[in-house]
Amino acid sequence: MNALFLVGPTSVGKTEIALRVASRCNAGIIGADAFQVYQGLDLLTAKPSPAERSRIPHHLVDVVPLSQSFNVAQYLDAATRCAKEIASRGKIPFVVGGTGLYIRALTRGLSDLPEADAAIRAELEASSLEDLQARYTSLDPDGATRIDLKNKRRLIRAIEVCLLTGKPFSSFRDEWKTAPATPVGFFLTRDRDDLYERINRRVETMFNNGAVLEEVRRAQDIGATAGQVIGLREIQAHLRGEMSERQCIERIQQATRRYAKRQLTWFKSEAALFREVNLTSRPDPESIVELVSRYGRDAGGS
Length: 302
Fold this sequence. Notes:
This protein has two domains: about 5-110 and about 180-300, Rossmann fold (3-Layer(aba) Sandwich), CATH 3.40.50.300; about 120-175, Histone, subunit A, CATH 1.10.20. Helices cover about 50% and strands about 10% of the residues. It has helices spanning about 15-25, 50-55, 70-90, 100-110, 120-125, 130-140, 140-145, 150-165, 170-175, 190-205, 210-220, 230-240, 245-270, 285-300; strands at about 5, 25-30, 60, 90-95, 185-190, 275-280. Helix 1 packs across helix 14 and helix 10 runs antiparallel to helix 13.
């Protein structure tokens, strides 16, 4: 895809910079976040605020009902259509987010994976996480070292592909198309202590007025995919009286830090795609905004 990319882990500070860049270089923002794509749970998923979205329209943010599944192939199709529409208006498609599989699909394409099988999916959904981990390890030992073994949804899909094709799921991952010859954007990062402190503060802020508890309490008919939103299960447990608010906050902070660590690892492995910018060592946002904007204008004019 011919687009400008701004990627990085949760809480790194992508939103503020993206808004200013989009305004400065006439860009249309396409979200690349597997949680923010869902409708509702705005605070829990740290979506750009309604005011920010009215200032700069965001595509593929707050568009999929919580009850529906949404996979990387659907995202690729939708994002490609958005990019074409943005470009047709003389604007630069500007992809902003932190979901590695979405970014990889846009920059390298997708392997030809089979459609979901309802019968297999139902059987796997009924299995425990431990059983799924053992089954996938037996089917794809190499893949088991490269997947998040605590993500039940991803495990189910990996096993399903193994069963439907007779091939290890990891073999399809090896078929990603070659990366672009030149960087396509920027990877924002921070020193670990700085990033983790920002994550902890964000979670504390979510709980300040109780609004995040209310939005989770109001959320209905949450499907398996949206059910993976970080913090959702913890807040639901708190609302059932199974843990205190302090325990809930600390567990969400821990889960978010772990997620950010996985994101950092993934984006560092894509060094050929993105120019890394450490916001801890470059705390002046204006210099970053100008750097990304200049790159975007140059790319848009090429």
